[in-house]
Automatic annotation (TrEMBL):
GO terms for biological process: folic acid-containing compound metabolic process. Residues 13-123 form the Dihydroneopterin aldolase/epimerase domain. This is Dihydroneopterin aldolase. Pfam families: FolB. It comes from the Bacteria. It comes from Rhodoblastus acidophilus (Rhodopseudomonas acidophila). SUPFAM superfamilies: Tetrahydrobiopterin biosynthesis enzymes-like. GO terms for molecular function: dihydroneopterin aldolase activity.
Length: 132
């Protein structure tokens, strides 16, 4: 991440712990549509502060990101949490001012002794390619 920020200040928008039930996972018991897996998804959107100020602090609408997360319930089965995260990344970069994003996807009900198991994904617009 050292070259991403380039010494520039950024504003970070947060969308925390959106709960959604998704058919997701590689294990046989995770492939039953009648028993979707609960996912907790958090998002951070990074935008250069100079861009935000130039546009008079127009808001970056994270409603579109939230709506995409909620729509995951209708996407059919998804094998990998990484694919879930990439679908959210596509929504994040729908706003041209977003330079980078971090997506956290957790399965909170996997292990009794943990708050959750999952992945964090950090993407920059410069290295991003939309899902096909």
């Amino acid at each position: 991440m050292t070259d991403f920020f380039n010494g520039e200040d950024h504003i970070v928008l947060a969308l925390d712990e959106v709960s959604v039930n998704v058919s997701c996972g590689l294990h046989p018991w995770e492939r039953h549509p009648e028993r979707p897996t609960r996912l907790i998804i958090s998002v951070r959107l990074y935008a250069p502060l100079s861009t935000a100020r130039a546009e008079q602090m127009k808001i970056i609408d994270y409603d579109k990101v939230r709506n995409r997360i909620l729509a995951l319930e209708k996407d059919g089965h998804i094998d990998l949490l990484e694919t879930v995260a990439d679908k959210v990344v596509d929504a994040c970069f729908g706003d041209k001012r977003v330079a980078a994003c971090r997506i956290s996807v957790r399965k909170p009900d996997i292990y009794n002794e943990t708050r959750g198991a999952g992945i964090d994904l950090f993407r920059t617009r410069a290295r991003w390619a939309p899902l096909a």
